[in-house]
Design brief:
This protein is α/β, with parallel strands linked by helices. It is built from nine helices and eleven strands. Strand 5, helix 6 and strand 6 form a beta-alpha-beta unit.
Length: 255
């Protein structure tokens, strides 16, 4: 049998290798934990898991105002309530329209104060944008918004954390009408009615070229399919919920 003699030099080398392997294991695990944490992304609510045939129609208002009354009239015809996400500067320009929307029973919510890219702002800047818009809306409607839709649909963990800190909910959409691209009324109609499901949140804009023409047909068709038109506030779960990787909100006991 061959005898292995460990010299002092060999022993130091072996101990050094063992130490490196231990350190690598420790730091490898630690780094993995940090990486995993860094990859965890918070999500807004895109739609809601529900067995009820209900859908939330939403309108973003940031610039024009020429179609607001037409939208109010069409929604009233079908006894539909909608959610309007307003930019603070739009509220400044059209306070009478804000009041008209509120008086008609629609939900008036936050779309930031000046329509910036929120992820590019500090936490303080994000909260200032939200708070200023909330104050302007509340002054007219006597109700403080509880929802915000980030401009451009752009968000980050920092944005969602700030919204949560203010006791609000971040809202996106799962059905995009693409009306801002000036699609024809037929194209808008087909995009919406073919994609709506129970719990969908649909995105429109209040000053899009062909939305007023398409809206009546959309309401007519979805009504015949048995859908009820509710506000986002009434659609979402306020507590004990989870959000899956697609942004669908579930009651906590469903997952």
């Amino acid at each position: 049998m061959k005898t292995i003699i460990l010299t002092k030099k060999k022993l130091i080398i072996i101990l050094g290798v063992v130490l490196l392997l231990v350190l690598f294991g420790i730091f490898g695990i630690t780094r993995g934990a940090v990486t995993t944490a860094a990859q965890t992304r918070l999500l807004p609510i895109y739609c809601v898991d529900t067995e009820k045939k209900c859908v939330a129609l939403t309108f973003d208002a940031a610039w024009g105002n020429e179609d607001t009354q037409d939208l109010i009239d069409t929604l009233k015809k079908y006894n539909a309530k909608a959610t309007f996400f307003l930019v603070g500067s739009w509220v400044d320009k059209y306070p009478e329209s804000v009041k008209a929307l509120s008086d008609a029973g629609h939900s008036i919510q936050n779309h930031s104060n000046s329509h910036p890219n929120l992820p590019q702002l500090s936490a303080e800047g994000i909260k200032k944008e939200i708070t200023l818009c909330n104050e302007k809306i509340q002054k007219i409607t006597k109700k403080c918004p509880t929802l915000i839709r980030p401009p451009y649909g752009d968000y980050s963990n920092n944005v969602i954390n700030c919204v949560n800190d203010l006791g609000m909910y971040t809202i996106q959409w799962d059905v995009d009408s693409l009306d801002w691209k000036d699609l024809s009324a037929d194209e808008i109609y087909n995009r919406v009615v073919n994609k709506v499901q129970n719990g969908s949140i649909v995105l429109f804009h209040n000053a899009a070229l062909n939305t007023p023409e398409a809206l009546g047909r959309i309401l007519e068709t979805l009504s015949k399919k048995g859908y009820k038109f509710v506000t986002v506030e009434d659609l979402i779960y306020k507590s004990d919920y989870t959000i899956d990787i697609t942004g669908k909100q579930f009651k906590a006991d469903k997952l």
